[in-house]
Amino acid sequence: MSKKIEELTQLLQPVVESCDFQLWGVEFFQQGRHSVLRVFIDTDREAGVGIDDCSSISHQISGVMDVEDPIAGEYTLEVSSPGWDRGLFHPDQYAAYVGEEMNIRLTAPLQGRRRFKGAMQRCTETTVTLLVDGIEFDIPFVSIDKANIVPTF
Questions:
Q1: Among residues 139, 5, 147, which one has the least CA distance to residue 71?
Q2: Predicted pLDDT of residue 47
Q3: Are strands 127-132 and 135-140 parallel, antiparallel or unpaired?
Q4: What's the pLDDT tens digit per position in 7-58?
Q5: Is the pLDDT assigned to residue 1 strictly greater than 80?
Q6: How far is CA 34 from the centre of its chain?
Q7: pTM of the model
Q8: What angle do CA 45, 102, 85 make, to 5 degrees?
Q9: Is-contact 149 85, C-beta < 8 A?
Q10: I want to staple 89 with a disulfide (CB 3.0 to 4.6 A). Which of 25, 44, 74, 115 is the partner?
């Protein structure tokens, strides 16, 4: 996790939790003079995360961002639920999805490849194991650039 993402997570987590939601993850993309800050929120409520929830939390986050000013220049703030293709941001999020199909993109190649799609077999504190075409791959969390659950409809 980049230092900027860590800083933003520490700043935003109390804001999201004070609204009775969980901060699922943060993405930050610098695009020239204009950047994008994506904040993913989740809840244990049966109704899930709605548009009004995202709007309310966006308003709360905007207030904190205006005061703290952690991002230089212009940026767009997007607040949403993790969605059907739920991204996984922290190692502790993986355990709930053992057995699920997932896509993983690495920061550097592992055994000659950077992209993996397969069923998660298990996870430890340091690795996730995927079964891809009958072969198990132990993937260190520190090597994962992006991971998403493959939705089943």
A1: 5
A2: 84
A3: antiparallel
A4: 999 999 999 999 999 999 999 998 777 899 999 999 998 888 999 999 999 9
A5: no
A6: 21
A7: 0.88
A8: 45
A9: yes
A10: 25
Angstrom distance (rounded) from CA 99 to CA 146: 18
- In whole angstroms, what is the distance from residue 14 CA to residue 97 CA? 26
Q: How far is CA 101 from the centre of its chain?
A: 17
CB 88 within 8 A of CB 149: yes
- Long-range contact set of residues 56-63: C-beta below 8 Å, sequence gap at least 24: 56/19, 57/15, 57/16, 57/19, 57/21, 60/15, 60/16, 60/18, 60/19, 61/12, 61/15, 61/16
- Sign for the CA dihedral angle at 29, 65, 56, 23 comes to positive
The CA distance from 111 to 81, in Å, is 34
Structure tokens that stand for 42 in this block: 């989740």
Three-class HEC string of 67-112: HHCCCCCEEEEEEECCCCCCECCCHHHCHHHCCCEEEEEEEEEECC
CB atoms under 10 Å from CB of 103, counted, come to 16
